[in-house]
Design brief:
With 268 residues, this protein is mainly beta. It has 3 helices and 13 strands, in the order ββαββββββααβββββ. The strands form 2 sheets. Strands 3, 4, 5, 6, 7, 8, 9, 10, 11, 12 and 13 form an 11-stranded antiparallel β-sheet that branches. A two-stranded antiparallel sheet has the order 1-2. The longest helix is centred in the first third of the chain and has 16 residues.
């Protein structure tokens, strides 16, 4: 990719570029790069071809700035069929987020049939015109192909998302890192309303029964509920071959909501 990456390297430290800034404070990092970097280091240090990272949970309890980033990992369980890895995200030496990842060994499905929701029937990304409103990709952080609905519309919402820049300089996106970086989008997509995005997510949990095999990740909002300023949101995730998993988030009401999102017709 030719666009500026979210991070460069300085020996063991990761240096955020300006592209990594978030929507709540231009001096802080976007949640997607926090999640992505934790996934990147977990996979690089502890991943294996015969294991699938079936669950990644990231708790984000502080907004990191642009100080150098260090990732520390530790193995909780290294079994024949189950690996559990924890990781800490330190910015300027201070813990800002942490992750827990469960990696499961590939085998075979048991005999018999189990009911599953039907696969979504949607146009392929190549069949959908690129949107003209740059806000739909947060002004160049990613690109989208809207399918139905829009950010904040009071109706079903579906879209395709693809990355336009590497997470770490000179490190091509792996399928796991690609979907981990994207997973944070479940927060605004599921929790934005007609007055803008009023919730900041404090976590993301990504479940995968397989890794994506295409560069486009599909999001379908399937849940949002909120009480007393605490929200949950959930999206089903797809690639161009079908369902791959889910992304679920918890959110806190912000005192100052984000600016009103693009109008429902902006994706046309």
């Amino acid at each position: 990719m030719t666009d500026q990456p979210f991070f460069t390297r300085d020996r063991d430290a990761f240096i955020p570029t300006q592209a990594a800034n978030g929507p709540w404070d231009p001096k802080s990092l976007h949640g997607r790069v926090i999640i992505g970097l934790l996934a990147f280091e977990i996979e690089k240090r502890h991943g294996a071809d015969d294991f699938v990272p079936a669950r990644l949970t990231v708790d984000m309890f502080r907004l990191p700035g642009f100080a150098p980033i260090e990732i520390k990992t530790r193995v909780v369980r290294d079994g024949l069929r189950i690996k559990v890895v924890e990781a800490d995200f330190l910015s300027g030496g201070v813990a800002m987020a942490r992750a827990s990842c469960q990696l499961l060994r590939k085998t075979e499905n048991p005999q018999g049939n189990v009911w599953s929701p039907p696969n979504w029937e949607v146009p392929a990304p190549s069949e959908i015109p690129a949107p003209t409103d740059p806000r739909l990709g947060m002004n160049g952080k990613w690109t989208t192909r809207p399918i139905v609905g829009a950010m904040g519309s009071l109706s079903p919402r579906r879209l395709w998302m693809s990355e336009v820049r590497d997470l770490v300089e000179a490190e091509p996106l792996t399928p796991f890192v690609r979907v981990a970086v994207a997973a944070d989008f479940a927060s605004p997509f599921a929790n934005a309303g007609d007055q803008g995005l009023g919730y900041i997510n404090s976590d993301v949990t990504l479940y995968l029964h397989r890794l994506p095999v295409t560069q486009w990740i599909g999001f379908e909002v399937v849940n949002h509920h909120a009480t007393d300023g605490i929200a949950i949101g959930e999206c089903w995730l797809y690639d161009e071959q079908g369902a791959i998993g889910t992304s679920t988030v918890a959110g806190l009401a912000q005192r100052k909501p984000m600016a009103k999102p693009p109008p429902p017709w902006a994706d046309r």
